[in-house]
Amino acid sequence: MNSNDTILITYREALKQAVREALHKDEKVFLMGEDVGRYGGAFAVSKGLLQEFGPERIMDVPLSENGFVGAGIGAALGGMRPIVEIMTVNFSLLAMDQLVNNAATLLHMSGGQLNVPVVIRMSCGTGRQLAAQHSHSWEPLFAHIPGLIVLSAGTHEDARHMLPMALQSADPVIIFEYTAMLNMEKDMPGNTSDFNINKAMVRKPGKDISIITYGAGVYKALDAAAALATMGVEAEVVDLRILRPLDKDTAFESVRKTHRALLVEEAWATVNISAEISACIMENVFYELDLPVQRLGGVEVPMPYAKHLEDASLPQKEDIVERVKKMLQHD
Amino acid sequence: MIEFNMPSLGADMEAGTLREWLVKPGDKVKRGDIIAIVETQKGLIDIEVFDEGVVNQLLIREDEKVPVGTVMALIANGEKGTGKTLQRLGKETETGKPVEEWQPVIAPHLVKASPLAKRIAAEKNIDLQTVKGTGEGGAITKEDVEKAAAQKAVMNEIKPPATESIRMAVAAAMSKSNREIPHYYLQQKIDMRKALAWLVEANKLRGVKQRLLPVVLLIKAVAKALTAVPELNGYWENGFRHKDEINIGFAISLRSGGVMIPAIHNADKKTLDELMTALNYIIPRARAMKLKSSELSTSTITITSLGEANAELVYGVIYPPQVALVGFGSIIEQPWAEQGMLDVRPVITATLAADHRATDGATGSRLLMYINNYLQKPELL
């Protein structure tokens, strides 16, 4: 494969290739989760893996999130490299005790003796009209917890390459994947030599405004930037990628260049990641700002079922374009 | 509380830029103290205060340009009086106007500017008060400041050197004079033989540095003549306003072009030696464009004297709002007829340019006669 080549791939397939590669590379790696084996995964990400790797490495678990996440943590403590799939972020609330009190805290509680190299994947955000209980964006909740590394795969590239990197980590890593993007087909760079899970990335350079986002916001922001480009506005799109520990420097660098920032994410606006980024910008690059920092977040209502209301509850490409135009007083 | 205003340093001055405060709140000041430096078209001027008190508040920031009459500072003098205790230089009226008619205090208004705009403005020395904001809610943005900086750069490029701005100041004052003042002119040849002879004797008693020049006789003669013809000492401001003090504005041509007219205060009451000292004090400072506000703005009449080896006579243009200008040409040897005899005498031609709104030729003529008479009796000067 030529390093300049790109690969046309769906987000789902990218996720699957990542799991498959990890299983091939390291015998200590195994996948556990609800319906990951016989059913092939609630979103068909692990379809066929049971047949390829067998039930010891593709493990169906009972519907008990706190239980199987705890089992995963135990396996990690015992020297394995478990990939725990929580079907969706919505159910992660049931596993919060294990995640916060064990995964994130054991290293501290054991005086540095016990690290927890577990990787927890979960599907996040809206799907197909899944309504109030199954459309959560809990990234800010996890990014709040010291001891966790929190990644957000907002692009196909990250869906494909974040997992193998996460498995190198000595500490617990949460990877957010996005249900709404599973069927999305994109060209993905074939070259991964400079891939990392330390830095945020400028997905599109620009000079007029920084749109700082992550997860499901990335492609929306890129689409918005493309639309803005036709109006002569060069927006820079920064994909945060790593929500904990935040790579603030990349965001600051962008603000130093554009002097304006719009923060976009699907999570409810109050106390979200954007709030943190905004505060960091104020603390560090205040004198670079030519406009007040602005945020576009999820509307603070339980997610409606109706499609048009669901769409209206989240920042969309058009909202981003409109807000940027307003900020730049672009007529 | 006394209000300290941006003084008018001449009829042509509309605004001044405060360059430096020499006092801060809490400082005691007394009459004659120089408390600020203001830049006008005539250069940097030391501004004096005319009251005693304690500086209460400085209302204008350094490098701020404000119109004449703007309250620059408040000075506490222990009284609550709102009477006009501060001399409004060059614009005095008979009695204090009600305070309400004064220029309102320009309180520094809040500037809404982005942090970046503020930073760039500080770096480029741009006063945000002068920048128009085009951003959200009228906020000043980076672009606004950069535009202002570019404009400033252009302005600086075309900004004339100090002497050229003096040229403009002279132009403005003289245009106003020619436009508004109906001048009439008189001239009188004056025999200077006695005066010069007296001067030679008088200088024998003085050291080289103390020696008198003919011009002090001319100044004193004009000052004394004005005590006899007070109608020519004062301002025309909606009618003639006589001035008790005789402050002679003495025109000094700058080597680089342009004219400065510092005042010699109470010239009629000064001895010749004091006048000479005053001239020696004032001329180099005028040439250096470093005069005090009171010297620039308080003349009640102007003398222009061409000095040696120059033209024979000069018809002056009155410096508004004054009503008269006395001109002296060079002292030149001329044939002089007197009592049926012809002689050669050192002669000076005195001219008077006067405002016909304020006086008529007869008044002007009287002034020239008095000047002549005094110069014939130099011992009385």
TrEMBL record, chain A:
Q: Which InterPro entries match?
A: THDP-binding, Transketo_C/PFOR_II, Transketolase-like_Pyr-bd, Transketolase_C
Question: Required cofactors, per record?
Answer: thiamine diphosphate
Q: Which domain of life is it from?
A: Bacteria
Keywords on record:
Oxidoreductase, Pyruvate, Thiamine pyrophosphate
UniProt GO molecular function: oxidoreductase activity
Where is the Transketolase-like pyrimidine-binding domain positioned along the sequence?
Answer: 9-184
One of this protein's Pfam families, by short name?
Transketolase_C
The identity of this protein, by name, is: Pyruvate dehydrogenase
Origin species: Niastella vici
Automatic annotation (TrEMBL), chain B:
Q: Does the keyword Transferase apply?
A: yes
Cofactor(s) recorded for this entry are: (R)-lipoate
Read off the Pfam families from this record. Answer: 2-oxoacid_dh, Biotin_lipoyl, E3_binding
Q: Which domain of life is it from?
A: Bacteria
Question: CDD domains of this UniProt entry?
Answer: lipoyl_domain
Cellular component, GO annotation = cytoplasm
- Molecular function terms, GO-annotated: acetyltransferase activity; lipoic acid binding
Extract the InterPro entries matched here: 2-oxoacid_DH_actylTfrase (IPR001078), 2-oxoacid_DH_E2_comp (IPR050743), Biotin_lipoyl (IPR000089), CAT-like_dom_sf (IPR023213), E3-bd_dom_sf (IPR036625), PSBD (IPR004167), Single_hybrid_motif (IPR011053)
E.C. no:
2.3.1.-
Give residue ranges for domain Peripheral subunit-binding (PSBD).
Answer: 112-149
Q: Which UniProt keywords apply?
A: Acyltransferase, Lipoyl, Transferase
Ranges where the Lipoyl-binding domain occurs: 1-76
Query: Oligomeric state and partners?
Result: Forms a 24-polypeptide structural core with octahedral symmetry.
**PANTHER family per record:** DIHYDROLIPOAMIDE ACETYLTRANSFERASE COMPONENT OF PYRUVATE DEHYDROGENASE COMPLEX, LIPOAMIDE ACYLTRANSFERASE COMPONENT OF BRANCHED-CHAIN ALPHA-KETO ACID DEHYDROGENASE COMPLEX, MITOCHONDRIAL
Family of this protein: Belongs to the 2-oxoacid dehydrogenase family.
Protein name in UniProt: Dihydrolipoamide acetyltransferase component of pyruvate dehydrogenase complex
* Protein species of origin: Niastella vici
